[in-house]
């Protein structure tokens, strides 16, 4: 019995190197990233159980409802499985070497510099949002931005990423710098290639939509600081998902 407890304590120490309280803005995405890191690093081995929900939620600083959504997504992706009963819990599923789909996607992503793409995207998009707010939009430009936002709300799931791309491109174009638009279009193409390698998560899309709406309000209110902050938080959420699945 003592040995088992010592093993659990050692496991907890290892998890402490990865698990941290998530930021309020992107709780779901960052929690998903951290649990994926635990699995990818082998801190909880295949067939072993993740910490209890209460403990994991406390460590991450999220509600158990949010944690259960994260675990449901991971179960749908075949990464963990839930078992009931006295010895139940959430267990890491066994995978079968480099032919596994997740491994294949990470190998493909290795040909792209993930961190560089994500940093460059954040710099360009946050700057564009601030510029839009600072320069002020005409009625016609504001109408274009609202229409692009509305299109994301009306999009079917299979077409969402196309409309999401068009919304962000519209925002960048309205900053008024053709050079900025060209650079953003290039990095967005790379970003979309990465996004197409991970699943569409409804919880993440709903969160992104709220951030889109807040960004548009800040831009139209002329609040450059808020527009920049919201854009950075939005980019950070996407980055957390991509790093979790592909890093």
UniProtKB/TrEMBL annotation:
Keywords, in A-Z order: DNA-binding, Transcription, Transcription regulation
Transcription regulation recorded as keyword: yes
Domain HTH gntR-type span(s) in chain numbering: 25-95
Keyword DNA-binding: yes
Gene3D superfamilies linked to this entry: GntR ligand-binding domain-like, Winged helix-like DNA-binding domain superfamily/Winged helix DNA-binding domain
Classification via Pfam families: FCD, GntR
InterPro entries linked to this entry: GntR_C, TF_FadR/GntR_C, Tscrpt_reg_HTH_GntR, Tscrpt_reg_Rrf2, WH-like_DNA-bd_sf, WH_DNA-bd_sf
Protein name per its UniProtKB record: FCD domain-containing protein
